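Next up, sample data:
>
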Amino acid sequence: MIQLVLLTGFLGAGKTTLMSSILKSYRDKKVGVIVNEFGKINIDAKLIEKEGVEMAELSNGSIFCACIKDKFVDSLIALSKTDIEYLFIEASGLADPVNMPDILHGIKRKTGSPYEYRGSVCVVDGENFIGLLELLPALQRQVEYGDVMMINKADLMQEKEIIEVSKQIQKINPNAQILVTSFCRADIREIVENLHSELKQSQETSNTEGTRPNTLILTAETPLAMEDLKEFLESIAKDTYRIKGFAETDKGTVEISAVGHNIYINPWYQKIVRSEIVVISSVGIRIVSVVTAALEKKLKGILHL
């Protein structure tokens, strides 16, 4: 039986960091990975590429939405034919996983039931969770469906904030195990091996074509001035849920990761074909005018929508 573990959590909560930790912890095992992104390009897959890992990249929607659910089903069936021992699924940040039981039940005829569902680890963005919970139904669903809640970014929080987030989680899912972490640092192998969850009753997911966030992809064929890039990102960040990608700059190749006012630009030591930055809107289609106005001030004619 292939042991299946689902990773959920809001955009920028730390799922990719957790996945990287998992792959290090399970380097002695045959592992498969499915990485899901809302955007048309899969930034997270580039961040966790590992030699010897069976990987499927599913982009441009949630795996729980009809828009790409068929591709998710196809990937599950294909990976069931391999010799992997574990399958880790990193869902997109706005994923609503409550129809996972129906999906696994639906593929049994084609897989011969090779998957044993161990449970779900939900990475909670402790810094932003309270403010986003009422705005985004998918976050509550992620907590409802989770077995282990990892309150991440504790280094950016006060003790009273951690307590409040814990209380909110317990209201939604009183049976969940709660861990408090920074950078998802934990004994992840122990967490996974102690997961023994039964699939919850399936519900209708809130992930639909109509609830998909507006997403833009910005590209550049020539290097960007680092200072102009920083100012551009700072000017649009407040109108986004998430910004991430890779860019070639006059200071070298960098990885970009932003959630709210926290913007990180770090060196990246792998070759990229061109700069690609994914912007996930928190203001709907208005993000187009926000980004266009910002480009007029910085990087006009260099960074393109």
The chain has a mean pLDDT of 92.
